[in-house]
Structures are given as C-alpha cells and as structure tokens.
Amino acid sequence: MNSKDISNGILRALAIILGISLLLYFLYIIQSVIVYIIIAGVVSLIARPMILLLRRRLKFPNTLSVISVMILLVGLIIGIIRMFVPLIVKQGESLSLLQTDKLQQNLQSVINQVNDYFTANNINLLSELKNVDFLSGFQAIPNLLNYVASTLGSLSVGLFSVLFISFFFMKDSKLLKNAVLTIIPAKSENRFSKSTEIIKDLLSRYFIGLVLQITILFVLYTITLLIFGIDNAVVIAFLCALLNLIPYIGPMIGAVIMFLLSMTSNLGQDFQTEILPTTLYVMIGYLIAQLIDNFFSQPFIFSKTTKSHPLEIFLIIIIGGLLFGVVGMITAVPMYTALKVILKEFLSENKIVKSLTKDI
Fold first, then answer.
1. Would you give the DSSP letter of residue 270?
2. What's the rounded Cα separation, in Å, for the pair 176 and 107?
3. Would you call 76 exposed, middle or buried from its count of C-beta atoms within 10 A (0-12, 13-18, 19+)?
C-alpha cells in the first residue's frame, strides 16, 4: 500500500465522518418535524382499526373512511379543548395563581395548621418550616403562565402539522413502508413487508390498549375526587391519568400533583378536621386505582398486545430508561415489539430469538 492509497483512505474516512456529522446536525435542526412524524405515525396506528372497520364492514371508500376518522379526531380534540380550558382557568383561579400574595397567605395558614397539629402530638419535624421562605418562588408563576401563552401559537402549528401528516399516513398506509423499502435490499423486501404488517397490527393494538388504560384510570380518579368533593375533579383526574404514560415515574408525579391539588382545593378550612382527612382519603383512592392498573389493566394490555411477559416488559422499560431517560421509558415497549417481529422474520432459527418470539 503506497502513500496515495493511505491518503485516499484517510480522505474517505474524513468524508464519511463529515457526512455523518452533517446528517446528525440536520436531524437535530429538524427534530420538531421528526417528532411530528412520530406522533402522526402513532395517531395513524390508533386510527387504523377504525378505518378498517369502515372499509370492511360499512364498505366505505378508503378516502371517505380516512376523512370520517379525521373528522372524528378533530371533533374529539375540539371537545377536549372546550371541556378543559374553562376548567383549567377555573382551577387556576381557585389556586390563586394570578394572586400570588393571597396564595402565599393561604399556604402559610395551612403550614401553620400543620405545624400546630404535629406539635400537639409531640412531633417537632415541622417546627422550623414556618421560617423557610420557599413561597417566594410563586412570584415566578405569572411569568410561567405568560411563557405558556406565548407557546400556544407553536402548539397550534404542531397540531396542524400532525393532523396533516396523519391524514396522508392513514390515506396511504404503505407510504412510510414504501419509503423504507427504497433502501432495503431487493431480496429482503418480502420479509420486511411481512414484518411491517405484523408490527402495525401489534402496535395498533398496543396504543389502543394504552388509551383504554388511561381511560380506566381517568374514570377511577374522577370518581375518587368527586366522592370527596375536590374542585375541578375532571381536570386533576385527566392530568394524573395522562402522566401514567410515563412508566413508574409518571404515577409518582401524579400522586404528588393529586396530593397538592387536593390539599389546596380546601384552603381556608380546618387542617385537622377537613384538609388532612380529605387528602388522605383521596390518596387512598389513588393508591387503589394504581393497584388496579398495575395488577389488572397493564398485564392484560401487555400480554394481549405485545405478546411479551410482564417481567420482560419491566426489564425493557428499565433498560430504556437507563439508556435514554424518560423518552426511552415511553418508547421502550413499542420499539422492543418492533424489534422482536423483525428478529423473528430474519433470525427465526436462532435459539434466543425463537424463545423470545414464540408467542408472535
């Protein structure tokens, strides 16, 4: 090998590194578009059974089926907005988010009652709490609300983009697959096509299962909050149920939110006879709902949709969280399901693959 070949090899390697760097930078720049495509893909997978129902059972043309489902989705979004925006505004008013001085006085009153209650029971853990000036942070809440308001324009653009992309994904279910097939070797096209159909079916069932899981939790949370007279129970229940999309961490965050909002909804009342018992009962209801979800809803969804053992799913979620954080925890199950299908199609004789994919 002469110096010319070595120079060409070095230049080729540098060109490859430069090309990969530019590609990664380009993907970073268009990351919002990638997010839109991913969300649109999830929406199309959720809508797929409804489109197939309209096409096969009711004999709707494909375009009419897609338009009907899109109208249903848009109507659902509008309904959620019309239902939750007034309630969120009311919740904000009840929490005095725009009156930080009053909110500090109310919370200081609760802290004083908490301190008196524990002191009366010879517990001094909160004796120094009155001297802690942690309420000054509430002065930043109006700025946060202004920031949220300023991002509504971006959210509306994102929503329109997702709906637009989802329409074409639903109208032409092979659009994304055909794009991928352009870089797949010809001899592997049949196997890949078969894998994508199985993946779409499993992921459609998985995402619909997640919607069912969130709905069950939403109903249970709402019933619990309504029983104990918590203001704006629907908003609180919806937020806490939605957080369960984040495995393990989400329910803990939801518990904190429900605890705080349940307590602050009773500001001005006696701590020992009203605030404390009501909050404890609400948290017991929250715990019961979580037990129902952990021991009934989740195992049923995972076993019926992903064809994976609950322990297998647990390990995959933990690994995804360690590697990629919260995003990894959320995407671990669908990514693992897709990987299993592809491995079964291309490495079906492998002993490990055969053991992991025996139920697919």
1. -
2. 53
3. exposed
